[in-house]
Amino acid sequence: MVTTAAALTDGSLASIKGFLKTLSPVDQVGADARAAMLATRSIKTASKKWAIDMAISMIDLTTLEGADTDGKVKAICNKAIRPDPTDPTVPHVGAICVYNDMVATARKHLDESGGGDIPVAAVSTAFPSGRASLEVKERDTKDAIADGATEIDMVIDRGAFLSGDLEKVYSEIVYIKSLCGDKAHLKVILETGELVTYDNVRKASFLAMAAGADFIKTSTGKVAPAATAPVVLVMLEAVRDFYEMTGVRIGVKPAGGIRTTKDAIKQLVLVKETAGEEWLNPGLFRIGASALLNDLLMQRQKLTSGHYGGANYVTLD
Amino acid sequence: MSDSRIDVKKTYKLFIGGAFPRSESGRTYEVKDSKGNFIANPSLASRKDLRDAVVAARGAHGGWSGATAFNRGQILYRIAEMMEGRTAQFVDEIVALEGVTPSVAKKQVEEAIDLWVWYSGWCDKIGSIYGSTNAVSGSFYNFTIPEALGVVTVFAPAKPSLLGLVQSLAPVLAGGNTAIVIASEKYPLGAITLSEALGTSDLPGGVVNILTGSPAELAPWASSHMDIDGIDASGLSTAQEKDLRIAGADNLKRIFRFKEAKSPQRVLSFMENKTVWHPIGV
Amino acid sequence: MTFEYSGAPESKAIVTIDPLYKLFIGGKFVAPKSGKTFTTINPATEEVLAKIAYAEKSDIDKAVKAAQDGLKVWSKMAPAERGKYLYRIARIMQERAREFAVLETMDNGKPIRETRDIDIPLSAAHFFYHAGWADKLEHAGVGENPKPYGVVGQIIPWNFPLLMLAWKVAPALATGNTVVLKPAETTPLTALLFAQVCQQAELPAGVVNIVTGDGATGAALVNHPGINKIAFTGSTDVGKLIARSVAGTGKGLTLELGGKGANIVFEDAPIDETVEGIINGIFFNQGHVCCAGSRLLVQENIQEELLEKLKRRMSQIRLGDPLDKNTDIGAINSREQLEKITELAISGDTEGAERFSAACTIPAKGFWYPPTFFTGVTQAHRIAREEIFGPVLSVISFRTPQEAIEKANNTPYGLSAGVWTDKGSRILWTAKHLKAGVIWANTFNKFDPASPFGGYKESGWGREGGRHGLAAYLKGAK
Q1: Which of A14, A116, B53, C265 would be C420's cystine partner, CB 3.0–4.6 Å?
Q2: Which domains does chain A have, with CATH numbers?
Q3: Which residues from chain B sit within 8 angstroms of residue A196, using beta carbons?
């Protein structure tokens, strides 16, 4: 039975609770086992090459440090546009992901350097903790959009979620979504490492989707564990089921802890065998990462050249 | 005046489903004492009586196996209490049939009573001693518990007639099974009197069913009956036991012959081990 | 372009298959007296892998004699030393695990993922577990001074060739018995590789003897007067035959037989994990599993949703080359078994059930059956009652927990069952009322050497694994 996302709940606590109660529980051990089994898929030769390029094009190349400077941000923008300067067949990444105050720098540099088609994502709403008033979160989001961010990575209020104030979590997402309007895509960060249980991950996923998220994202990268395979599995099941309910495909973005080609390919296997091939594109699946890109490039060079590479044969940033 | 009083003699009947019917066949046979004098005409149970007993035992199984172990233990103890009050009658019957002295007979009765007490105590302990939690790899809780097998037919040893019967019957009941006892052909009176004690000991009807007659006649029917789960063949000859095992293979009956009078292994023989797995997660 | 997985075949280079395998008797490989052989094939390719010696009565005589001689050494050995041999065997199996996995996959047809991750590690684990029992038998729960039976004849099936060997041999040896083992006709190779492991472990001669052949070989073993106990895993029909054969001989007998396991799904089940459990329950090892969850009992109010999810998940199943590391479903073990599965599935069609099969490409050579389920099945259908031993699931609905139990127990079998629900008290209620020896709650087809396995009713006698399984190889006071 297809319904609209807005019809799933009217936003009142009773309605949200009622909706989340209709969701199936998740058995942790079973979910872990399924993710572990999918991790044994062996991706070789042609399929590996395809997967590496797909993974590169899905990366939200990220720098989220207190030490970020214009220089650092410009450098990753260059890397985003031409990940491997020696090989123009390498695709560019999915997006640049920075703090709010670096959005303008990133946008400008991308536009000036041939990266006009690479979106800038801003982490928003008092990232990473979300511990601020709605007014602060509003300003944060508006600033980012004004500076050229076309993707907003907001955090949910985990404290509110865990204390049962689901109305607050929901209404904040609805509000930030309204600020995004048609100017920006909204990614909702669940911070699964703080929600802990897969039941919570599933509920928070549906809560975010019902409230208008375009993407659901695992983590800020500041809390461990982050994008573990079973958490991504549970979120992929959620977007698949949400599509069955509403006919709308919501994206998924694992972020944090995905550092190697092997990790990234495992993510793609999870996508293919859980949500399905329809999700295997940067419009519906992103990987929040920084170090991952170079490992993908090294593996790509190995596939092209036939021998193992070294860290000095890919650019630092 | 007492000299002229005529004894009120007992009609020895079957015990099926808590009632005391005669054989549906109308048959009886003659039981004599050790000196060859007539004693009684108990029922010569037919295969249809056996069939009825199986129906009664199956019907009672859910309640008996589902009762708490504590409750079963109390009822087994109650059987001992009821037997104690009938000691004199059991002694008289054993003396008459087996030809032993009253003191030997009394010892047999006392041992039989005490054996009920011993098995009564096993009801709520067998699972703790012989069940297990199993340290499996992976995030699973795994435990094994012994459960009642189902309906068990008992061919008890002929002698000592009462003690042999209790040795076979008590462990079957302690494990939560319901039973059909085929009494000793030659020495059936203790079994019949036991049925009267059982009938007054809070034991639900059908948990124990006692048939008198010919074990040789009933054994083939019992061995091929598809709704009997186990047989204690201690009272049968090895030739009879072999035939029983061949026919019993049709539904893979659990068939045992025991040497030990008193052993938790006798209880466990008529129990099935059930292992349950469940994930441990949040 | 879509994300297709390129072939990822496991290398066969690790395995050397001899052209001819002899019998393993008294620590040596010896030719059968008749000189007869049979062949074993790779069911995925129909290629002949090797010629295998065919054992007849005179060879069984020799093997039993060797086992009796072995018993003199083995039963007198200090238990702790006996245990060390088992540890050695476990270690060598771990060292040669990949070799065993590839060979098992070639001879059996099951996917390398399963032999590599399940069959072989579990086999080694069984020896490890039982090695530790060898010097603790007085704690096995059968009395103070338990004794071995003596020479044990063991007959194992083709569905888990090495694992079933381990389930049989490890407890028998730990308890001081010696064995004559007959592997299945279609899957003898890993047992013969195991014989080489026994040689490497310097196991005393005659402690393990392996005789290859067919049903007649097995019958000769069962009926041999020098055998003190038989342990059999296989069909219920053959189990009954063996039970009749040993009646009156005084031989011990344990049986692990067939099943028609009910996998019960309640409305509040964790649905995605349940779907995985259903898949694992019936399609693991091509459904060649005695404890398979071959009857799906689903609460009627979620049947539609569950089956949609099941269909979707089945479309992801990868059937094909068993040596490919990404293969989920391999080959059916033999043409004979394929014919049996096909015949029973057709009975499902003709008796009016509705078939759904995953759209798999069936390879040109070899024996294959696509993952399949039938809906509209009632208790009266053959596919609801008979063991199919293949990747075919019968879906039956129920309305209340009581009805689920009645349907689940309405079978002569009683090996396994599954229950899926989020409610703890319902799990325990259901587990209590199911007449089955192994109950998986919110999981399925899990095995462990420490966990007793075996059936109620016509699914067998006795247990394998754990303390309870050990007891089956010991004579105690009774």
Answers
A1: C265
A2: 5-304 (3.20.20.70)
A3: 282
For chain C, the three-class secondary structure string (H helix, E strand, C coil) is: CCCCCCCCECCCCCCCCCCEECEEECCEEECCCCCCEEEEEECCCCEEEEEEECCCHHHHHHHHHHHHHHHHHHCCCCHHHHHHHHHHHHHHHHHCHHHHHHHHHHHHCCCHHHHHHHHHHHHHHHHHHHHCCCCCHHHCCCCCCCEECCEEEEECCCCCHHHHHHHHHHHHHHCCCEEEEECCCCCCHHHHHHHHHHHHCCCCCCCEEECCCCHHHHHHHHCCCCCCEEEEECCHHHHHHHHHHHCCCCCEEEEECCCCCEEEECCCCCHHHHHHHHHHHHHHHHHCCCCCCCEEEEEHHHHHHHHHHHHHHHCCCCECCCCECCCCECCCCCHHHHHHHHHHHHHHHHCCCEEEECCCCCCCCCCCCCCEEEECCCCCCHHHHCCCCCCEEEEEEECCHHHHHHHHHCCCCCCEEEEECCCHHHHHHHHHHCCCCEEEECCCCCCCCCCCECCCHHHEECCECHHHHHHCCEECCC
**Which residues numbered 175-204 in A keep a CB inside 8 Å of some CB on B?**
196-197
pTM reported for the whole predicted model: 0.96
Q: Confirm if C427 and C441 have CB atoms less than 8 A apart.
A: yes
Q: Which residues of B are less than 8 Å from A32 in CB distance? A: 139, 281
CB environment C36-68: b (16+ within 10 A), e (fewer): ebeebbbbbbeeebbbbbbbbbebbebbbbbbb
User: For C326, which of A24, A42, A45 is closest by C-beta distance?
Assistant: A42
- The catalytic residue among C104, C185, C256, C464 is C256
Look at B249 and C244 and tell me if their CB atoms are within 8 Å: yes
Kindly determine whether residue B281 and residue A196, on different chains, have CB atoms separated by under 8 Å. no
Taking contacts as CB-CB distances below 8 angstroms, the residues of chain C near A272 are 3
pLDDT digits (tens, 9 = 90+) for B24-54: 999 999 999 999 999 999 999 999 999 999 9
SS3 A56: helix
Domains, chain B, in order of start with CATH, read 15-30+39-279 (3.40.605.10)
User: Is the pLDDT at C87 greater than 70, yes or no?
Assistant: yes
Active site residues of A: 153, 217, 253
pLDDT of residue A1: 53
> What is the Cα gyration radius of chain B?
20
B130 → closest Cβ in C141, C239, C476:
C141
**Residue A106 Cα, gap to closest chain C Cα (Å):** 32
pLDDT digits (tens, 9 = 90+) for B90-143: 999 999 999 999 999 999 999 999 999 999 999 999 999 999 999 999 999 999
Q: From the CA of B130, how many Å to the nearest CA of chain A?
A: 29
Sort out which chain C residues have CB atoms less than 8 A from B250's CB and list them: 240
Contact residues on chain A for B279, CB-CB shorter than 8 A: 27-30
- CB–CB of C437 and B245 under 8 A? no
List the domains of chain C with CATH numbers.
20-257+457-475 (3.40.605.10), 262-441 (3.40.309.10)
User: Is C3 in the A-facing interface, judged by CB distances under 8 Å?
Assistant: yes
Q: Is the ipTM of this complex over 0.85?
A: yes
